[in-house]
Write a structure and sequence with these properties.
The complex is a heterodimer of chains A (about 325) and B (about 325). Chain A is mainly α and about 325 residues long. Helix content of chain A is about 75%, strand content about 0%. Chain A has a single domain, classed as ABC transporter involved in vitamin B12 uptake, BtuC (Orthogonal Bundle). Classes of the chains: A mainly alpha (about 325), B mainly alpha (about 325).
């Protein structure tokens, strides 16, 4: 009984519950048809949101005002870089992935450089950076139909018994992220900075280094996400990352991470990502128009935030 | 009085002088950056500096300036509106359809949308919600509504709106007069009235303001309603220029508006904003993004980057000045 109570108290339970409710509503509507396929599709799409969501989670946990707005531009550029480096040949897949990772990490490092050198709020730093990245992407990837190598596209779409391989790998990655957050010096330092940056500094946390690492991590995850997206959708384009600005922030907040910083939750990111993807699937299944779908998505996000919010910031 | 104390007084006044100079320089920074962009344009293409040239180059500056003012009100209360762009697009779609075909319904819809902004302000304050997430969600709502109002690009602006935006006053181009009017009116309201001080105070020190007996819910509602009002004006002005609408027409304005406020000397926290600076910031972005690049023969690919680069350069200059302020 007490274990059930402590389970309900965990913030991430609600996001999974939401995902299950939406899934049930859809299969009741279809009369049970496509229930399994829906889970498979949801898992493969949620992966991309989870990867950037984890990066965004670490950034947001650093405290009020910390958010990475450059993720969409980053994903767009990294997808183009990966596809160009791979050049359609299977032997270059690993090199291409590393190039996307390096491209993303470099963007993250530049973000922190701007924050540190100009002493400006991260929102403005990542915003200015995203303007410039967007232009680089437009100029770099223009007029080219960039397709992934067949091997890479197949890998991104590979399934074992209905479970996407990428989803399995991402689960392993998120387990690693959860351990890093709760059990390693890096994660504890991020939490400490988010709770009180001055106290963390006085306690000997190297605040600058941790913040640098966090923005670089977020950038690197954006980069790898871009490469994987281009593989999954069999092609890179500039707008490929656009929806991940809202999605990355929304999954962090819906998943039970505090926007005021200092409190993070990795499982919640998965629950919230599945919830968002299944929500879209449900609205598509109901056959609503694009306008209604956007309207309902927005209203549900605002509604969930309103229901989940209300906790006072510590300071 | 001992020699030592005279020495400190002298040093203090010298320091104060340096501080005042740094503050002045910081206050002038937005105007300086605009002047710099204008000089660059004049040097590259002297013919652009004319009545006709300015009318053309600053054509889209009015809606950008209005959207920037809307964002400024939200930032003054320590919040951020990531939905202003799609809101401007929604207003544009209503303007090009309902406001022309059934003016009364159109006006009611627009007033209602300002009401939604007021509600959002109340919701964010009462439930202590992160405005970034709420407004990101709302950006989907406005976009969805815009598509429902106008599924395909089209519609037509009301004739009275078209004639207002096509005004050709003598000597000074219309966009410049409009920008001056917007800046001065908002400056008076926010910087020179006693309730304006309270509004800015709600961003500067909300706890103190609350203890002094002012309602923080009310200040947030007023700030968000003003943002909604200026968002409506921005959408109408935009349609008055483009004559027809599209559900995605305002999407770029969210980031432009934030950039404009910051360029104009606004700070993210603490209620430190400047209406005139914000208008100047919007003009700088409007000029630098397209006319300047065109004259420099830089392909339009780099337009967005120009906005980012200007933002970074101005912020870097501000850091240099602030360092002296200390």
């Amino acid at each position: 009984m007490s274990s059930a109570k402590s389970l309900v108290a965990k913030p991430w339970v609600w996001s999974f519950l939401g995902a299950i409710v939406v899934w049930l509503a859809t299969i009741i509507f279809t009369g049970g048809y496509g229930a399994g396929g829906m889970v498979t599709a949801a898992l493969s799409l949620a992966v991309f949101t989870v990867i950037v969501g984890v990066g965004q989670m670490f950034v947001i946990t650093l405290g009020p005002g910390n958010v990475d707005l450059s993720l969409p531009a980053n994903i767009g550029l990294a997808s183009a870089v990966a596809m160009k480096v791979m050049g359609g040949s299977d032997s270059m897949i690993l090199v291409g992935l590393l190039a996307a990772l390096a491209c993303g990490a470099a963007i993250g490092a530049v973000n922190y450089l701007l924050i540190w050198a100009l002493r400006i709020p991260p929102i403005i730093a990542t915003l200015s950076a995203s303007f410039i990245i967007q232009s680089i992407d437009i100029s770099y990837g223009r007029g080219l139909q960039i397709k992934p190598p067949a091997g890479f596209a197949d890998f991104a779409n590979l399934q074992i018994l209905g479970i996407p391989v990428l989803a399995i790998l991402t689960v392993l990655f998120t387990v690693g992220a959860a351990i890093a957050l709760q059990r390693m010096i890096y994660g504890r330092s991020v939490l400490a900075i988010g709770q009180n940056i001055r106290a963390a500094w006085l306690a000997g946390v190297n605040v600058g280094r941790i913040r640098f690492l966090t923005y670089t991590l977020s950038g690197a995850l954006g980069g790898i996400d871009g490469a994987l997206l281009a593989g999954y959708f069999r092609g890179a384009n500039i707008d490929i990352g656009n929806e991940y600005l809202l999605a990355s922030i929304a999954v962090v907040v819906i998943g039970g991470t505090s926007v005021a910083g200092g409190k993070a939750n990795v499982p919640g990111v998965w629950g919230a990502a599945l919830f968002l993807v299944l929500l879209l699937t449900m609205l598509n299944t109901f056959g609503v128009s694009a306008g209604v779908r956007l309207l309902l998505t927005g209203l549900i996000i605002v509604g969930v935030i309103t229901a989940a919010g209300g906790q006072k910031a510590v300071r | 009085m001992t020699a030592a104390s005279i020495d400190t007084t002298a040093r203090n006044s010298a320091e104060r002088g340096a501080l005042a100079r740094a503050r002045l320089l910081r206050g002038l920074l937005p105007a300086l950056s605009l002047a710099l962009v204008l000089i660059a344009i004049a040097w590259l293409n002297p013919r652009a500096i004319s009545y006709f040239g300015f009318s053309l180059m600053l054509n889209l500056a009015i809606p950008i300036a209005l959207a920037t003012i809307a964002q400024m009100f939200v930032i003054a209360g320590n919040e951020l509106d990531l939905s202003i762009g799609t809101f401007v697009g929604f207003v544009g779609c209503v303007t090009a359809t309902w406001l022309r075909d059934a003016p009364l319904v159109g006006v009611l819809i627009l007033l209602g949308s300002i009401g939604v902004y007021a509600l959002l302000g109340a919701l964010i304050q009462l439930r202590n919600l992160p405005s970034i997430v709420v407004t990101l969600g709302m950006s989907f709502v406005w976009q969805g509504l815009a598509i429902l109002v106008l599924p395909k690009p089209g519609g037509k602006a009301p004739d009275w709106l078209l004639s207002i935006m096509a005004l050709k006053p003598p000597f000074v181009p219309f966009p410049i007069i409009a920008a001056l009017l917007i800046g001065l009116i908002v400056h008076f309201g926010l910087m020179r009235t006693s309730y304006g001080v309270i509004l800015r105070g709600s961003g500067g020190n909300p706890a103190a303001l609350g203890r002094a007996g002012w309602s923080l819910v009310k200040t947030k509602i007023v700030l968000f309603s003003l943002a909604g009002l200026f968002g409506v004006l921005s959408g109408m002005a935009l349609i008055g220029i483009t004559t027809s609408a599209d559900a995605n027409i305002g999407n770029g304005y969210t980031l432009l508006a934030i950039a404009g406020v910051i360029l104009g000397g606004g700070e993210f926290v603490g209620g430190r904003v400047s209406p005139i600076g914000a208008v100047i910031g919007a003009l700088t972005l409007a000029l630098a993004a397209s006319p300047l690049l065109t004259f420099m023969h830089i392909p339009p690919d780099w337009q967005v980057a120009a906005n980012g680069a200007i933002l970074i350069i101005v912020l870097a200059a501000r850091v240099l000045i602030s360092r002296r302020e200390r």
